[in-house]
Amino acid sequence: MSNADPVEIEKFSQVAHKWWDPLSEFKPLHEINPLRLNYINRHASLAGKSVLDVGCGGGILSESMAALNANVTGIDLSDKALQVAKLHLLESGRQVTYRKIAVEDMAAECPDTFDIVTCMEMLEHVPDPDSVIASCAKLVKPGGWVFFSTLNRNPKSYLLAILGAEYVLNMLPRGTHDYAKFLKPSELAQSCRNANLTVSDLSGMSYNPFSKIYSLGTDTSVNYLIACRRD
Question: Which helix (H) or strand (E) holds 79?
Fold first, then answer.
């Protein structure tokens, strides 16, 4: 628990019961999930692979990867989120293993285990993102894939991701993000290299407020994804 912010865990625990409501505070996660899923599957081909979803929350991404025949384990530190994730399996019929464990402890317990490790929308919520990145690198097999997504740190991302999304459009609850914890792509790429991960791709995720549609492209100024392979 040393690399976890209790305030952040409690923040998401309080609304965990809404995780699978596509019209709730988690609506953006539901809307971007197909993009995240396709991005991962395009690079790493999920079918038949062992996958670890770090910071799985209520299991939106975990379940969608399991639906593509991946053998998925999801880990998180929120009891309430994990309870919601486990309950939803009864409705969906998917097969996912959920555990309450820190990624650092998981890395010590079973290094070199997974074909794919995903860590989406989590790095901007932890005190030490480098520790998470290093642990993800330890957990994946040599030659395996690691995927991260997070928020860029610049005036545009502050304007859109915090002022716009949280205060103007009310897409997210106020206080969801802390701008100081946002990571520039160059910073995340360097942290990945420090963890012996080779960056294979960097893609941006953009939101059109008029069409209300998310899309992947080259604009990494706000949200972005990074695909890496372990050396």
Answer: helix 79-92
Cβ–Cβ under 8 Å, residues 129 and 191: yes
- The answer to whether 98 and 59 are in contact (CB under 8 A) is yes
- Does the 6-230 domain belong in CATH 3.40.50.150? yes
Rg (CA), the chain: 16
* Residue 218 burial (10 A CB sphere; 0-12, 13-18, 19+): exposed
Q: Which helix (H) or strand (E) holds 92?
A: helix 79-92
- pTM of the predicted structure, to 2 decimals: 0.92
pLDDT tens readout for residues 159-191: 876 766 655 556 666 666 677 789 999 999 999
* Binding-site entries for S-adenosyl-L-methionine: 36, 55, 76, 120
Numbered residues of the known binding site? 36, 55, 76, 120
Exposed, middle or buried by CB within 10 Å (0-12, 13-18, 19+), for 30? Answer: middle
Sequence-separated (6 or more) residues with CB below 8 Å from residue 91: none
Separation between Cα atoms, residue 140 and residue 86, nearest integer Å:
24
What would the pLDDT profile of 76-101 be if each residue is shown by its tens digit?
999 999 999 999 999 999 999 999 99
Angle (CA) 225-152-6 rounded to 5° is 90
Q: Which residue ranges make up each domain of the chain?
A: 6-230
